[in-house]
# Entry
Amino acid sequence: MALRYNGYVGVFDSGVGGISVLRQLAATLPAENFVYFGDSANAPYGEKTRDQVARMSRDIVDRLLDEGAKAIVIACNTATSVAAASLRADYAHVPIIGVEPALKPATEQPGVKRILVMATPITLRLDKYQLLAEKWGSGHEVIDAPCPGLAARIEKGDLESPDIYELLEDLVGSYAGAVDAVVLGCTHYPFIARQIREVVGDVPLFDGAYGTALQLQRKLAERGLTTKSSGRGTVEFLSSKPGKDEIELYRSFFESS
Ligand code: DGL
# Structure
C-alpha cells in the first residue's frame, strides 16, 4: 500500500466526535500533519459490543499504520476503554494515545462537589472508567449519566434542532441546578457544550482534549518523532461513510467555533 500518510499523526473516532480532540491537537501541535478517520458508517460505538468496537478500532489502526502514520490518537473514550491496552501491547513500536473522561481536573476545581459524568453506556460500564472514578472520585459525589442516542444524534449535524434539547432533557434534565460540574466523557459532546449548559445549568464543563494533546506532544518528543518542519501542518479527513458530504460535515465541525 502507498504510504500516503507517511509521518502523519493518525486520529480516529466513530464519527465526528473525535474532531473536538483533533482541533485541540492541531492547535497545540500546529506543525504536525494529521489524518482523521471517522468511522461514521459504524457509528455509534457506545451502544455496540466490546468485541465489535475492538475489531473496528483495530481495522482503523491497521489501515492508518499501513499508510505510514507515525502515531495514533484514539479520539474516542469508548474505543480507548475497549481497545487501547491491547493495541498498545500489539503495536509497541508506535505511540498510541487515548482519551479518558476528565474527572481528575473536575475534582481539582475549587468548590466542585457534585460531578455529573456524561458518557456512552460502554465507557461507564468498563473497568477503565470504574478505576478512574475510584481513584479521583473519593471525596466527591460522582454521578454517572449514560447517554444512549446522544452521539448518534450529534452525528447528524444540525445541533440546534429541538430534538437535541428533548434528548438532553430526558437524559440529564433531572440534574438541572443540582451539580457543580459536568465531565464530557464522550468526544462528541463538546460540540453541544452550550446546549448541555442550557439544560444542566451554567457550570464548568471538562473534556479530555487538552490532556490528550499534551500526552501526544510528550510521546512524540520521547520517541524523537516530533516533526522537524516549522511550517503549518495539514489536516486531512477520511470517512468509512462514502460521499463528499461526510467529509464536508467533518470540515464544518473542524472549523466551527
Ligand atoms: N465519541 C465517542 C466517545 O468518545 C463514541 C461515541 C459513539 O460512537 O457512541 O465515546
